Amino acid sequence: MISLTLLAAWQGTSTTYALDETHSSGNNASATYSGLSEADALSIEQIQAVQAFKTRWTLKSIQFFSSTRSTGNIYPSLVAVLDTGIDKDHNELMGRVVADISFVEGAGADDINGHGTAIAGIIAADESDGSDVTGIAPESRLLNVKVADDTGRCQISALAKGIIWAVDRGADVINISIEIPDTTADLNEAVNYAWDNGAVIVAAAGNSGNTVVVYPAGHEKCLAVTAIRENGALAPLSNYGDWVDAAAPGFKIYSLSPGNGYGYRYGTSFAAAHISGLAARLFSMVTDVNGDGKLNDEVRQAIEAGCN
Predict the structure, then answer these.
(1) The pTM is what?
(2) According to the model, what pLDDT value does residue 59 have?
(3) 157 classed as catalytic
(4) What residue spans of the chain are helical by DSSP H?
């Protein structure tokens, strides 16, 4: 049994070796998607149900799901996946994608690369066919927002547009498993727009194995997520530091691939997906404590309350 450990800051060191999940970009106008580790389970004092959250590393059987499903109060959160696209015809994602769009010039929203489909699987896969993949929030609905091309390259302008599009369609959670070396005014405005309209943005902290801040994870309105291994140690190449908000599984994560396939993934990309799934579930559990008419601040507070 693994309990999800959230870390306000990971101060450790990482082992460096090549992982083929990471793709580099040539300039500041492009970004790389983050591929690295896997997540655990959580203990949040404010929400007792999360204290019962249990999982094995491959997420095959999660007692938390059955206990919360029995209440009949699960809200089907809308989660936007800003990535390389999603294979919405995958057996375990059928009916999950409610809208899609591509901000990649000359490309549709299909996922040729596979990165986005793996992210979607961690968040929302339905294991009813007896497979080994269970999403953290299988009741959630997905927005497929293709902002990265089939090699994983992403233009910052496309990312900013994708965030705004997702917010305007009611996204509760926005998963961004993409790292950019610096930010822009447009990206900052998009992130602020998302937060001000009640969305939680979860972003990968990157896979350079150092403390250098990347974006949009480094934005104060984003939850920056690094990756850990099954033993709780920082996963290889995962970024760390006091700017990181949480850590979740990101090493040898079994998830979906296009064409009804499956495979293992590594990186902070997949750690972020675990936190996005958790955030999606928390929207059903928190209440508007401060009366501002939104729940994203309570969801973020609940996640951060579980940080060590």
Answers:
(1) 0.81
(2) 43
(3) no
(4) 48-51, 63-69, 115-124, 156-168, 185-196, 268-282, 296-305
